[in-house]
Queue: 2 jobs
Job 1
Amino acid sequence: MSTKDVNTMRIAPKVWRNGEFIDWKNARVHVMTHAIHYGSSVFEGIRAYSTERGSAVFRLTEHMQRLLNSAKIYRMDVKFKREDFCRATVDLLRQGDMDECYIRPIIFRGLNEEKPAFGVNPFPNPVDCYIASWDWGKYLGEEAIESGVDVCVSSWTRITSNSLPSMAKAGANYMNSQLIKMEAILAGFSEGIALDDRGFVSEGSGENLFLVNNGRLITPPLGAAILPGITRDSVIKIARELGIEVEETTIQRAALYLTDELFFTGTAAEITPIRSVDRITIGDGKRGEVTKRLQEEFFAVIHGKRPAPDNAPWLTYVNEAEEKKTAAASTTEG
Ligand code: PMP
């Protein structure tokens, strides 16, 4: 077997580190690594899906661009380009014989063991880049995609963009997400929705949020304290293609209770319906028609069964990318 079984989870046997592939077991850091103490990391979550043409990575370029945007915000000097991260991802999946999997690129402030620096100032520390991959099922459960999840509004406020920019997918942001998630789980919910510092709806601990009202989609605007989700963007584009109106606007907490349908979007959560908020039933308490329609179209796109809106190149076919490279190499040799 080319991948190993750890707690029934298949993990790619190699990890990409600063331009080379190393064994999974060697992808370790020192306890005095800057990122462990001060949260100085930025990362991505990407999924690859099985298609008739083999494994395909969903919106790889956009994810790697967001990774580099996050690094730029935190003044991280990254020596690899977006294309390097994309190529490394394809090579990693190919080598590990990965099919449907989750991909985790991460850039963080490391430790120079010859010239250690332990203070908050990140500049003396090296910037390390890694990519790992593993098989990951449905984030909020297999059933959730059809029956929906029960969620609460969190007592925790979403981070404000002037303290920790929500545009960056930074490790530190996820301390706020963890407070939201833990509170929800301990209260018997699957997930929590955070309000922003003004009291308007922002997002889940790891998902964007959409309301469906009279057949129209409503979602908080990018200017709010939300991550500019790539699934969010995909859903908006698919909806508009289907002739469904989309409005990006501020949303009051109470509007969540009154909406016809409600769903989360995210790489991990994909499109997950929400059946109740704070124990108040949403609509009929089951997946609504618009949610179902968007799920069907979204799943068709990610599995290569229909083109993306405007024929956008949303899928990177792992085998074909490799074949192209091999063809190019043999041409050069020939
Ligand atoms: N918001 C937060 C806080 C997230 O962690 C995620 C997951 N990356 C999302 C939204 C959804 O973003 P995407 O669709 O790009 O995965």
Job 2
Amino acid sequence: MAEKRKIIMDVDTGSDDAIALCMAMLDPDFELLGICTVGGNVEAKLTTDNSLRVVECCGMQGKVRVYRGAERPIAATLLPWVPQAQKLPIRDGTKKEFNQHPFHLPLPEPVITAERKSAVSFILDTLLESSDGEITYVSIGPMTNLALAMRADERIIGKLRAVFCMGGGHETGNESAAGEFNVWADPEAAEIVLQSGADITMVPLDATTTAKFDEEDERRIRELGTAPAVLVADLLKQRIDAYQVIEPSDLKETAVHDALALCSIIHPEVLTDVRFCTVHTDISRGFAYGETILDQRPRNKEAANCRFALKADRQFFNDYIYRVLSEAKDRELQISIF
Ligand code: BDR
Ligand code: CA
């Protein structure tokens, strides 16, 4: 068997984060070193609680630890619980009413608790103790923790093998006309990470919205019947229903943004149109605050800093999620027989 890919997950769990976490724990190609949480879809105390629930759902208590991270962005005040929130006109005030990310995931309250060490301390200690190029960082929420750690000790940048982020959008935003949620929530953090010199792949809305799941995909997964499979199916159903309210369409389907970023680490071919180019985040606090801007001009002299994916293979991604859950079920059965 090929060497496992060592990863740190940074999450704002979050329904699609939960699906990505299941993959990170159940896909034997990954070795999950720890889960860092951040305020994003919901507050950090809730993203932490939700992540602990997912760890228990996958039976990984005692094996995978959760570190609570930043509650608030570095400078932005757009998230609803951040004091003195600027009520910018581009802000979508209906978000919490039809939220596809419930405060609590549909799982029992966790028995395990988060570590005493903060997420930023965990990132610094783990990376500084690692060999160069050993660890891949997977950021699927606002990039606050990683940006803070990079500012605290720049040596971690040279330690990283790669950074994979779900974030950004070229053709569209979601939280605002220009901003994708993770980048919009903490644009300054995204810009710090993007300009860090790390090897970065961004999996933005352009790619994630070309690889959706529908009710048939949900049924196929639910039939597997294991706890993680039922969780994934429940979350798909919930997201499909929520999108019918947020973005009504004849097609009942949903993107699973965060899990695509994870899948692309081991299976880069799932991303089918990837541009290596210069990417910046707008931090000018106007209407485009939090927009990711790609400079693809032939005359651009600035070095490329990021692989930015524009499309993904829907069938491949669907089959990946199903295969990981189905193989995990087979392993569970073998263990119960012997
Ligand atoms: C991203 O924002 C969050 O709501 C999701 O969990 C995902 O990480 C999509 O824009
Ligand atoms: Ca997320």
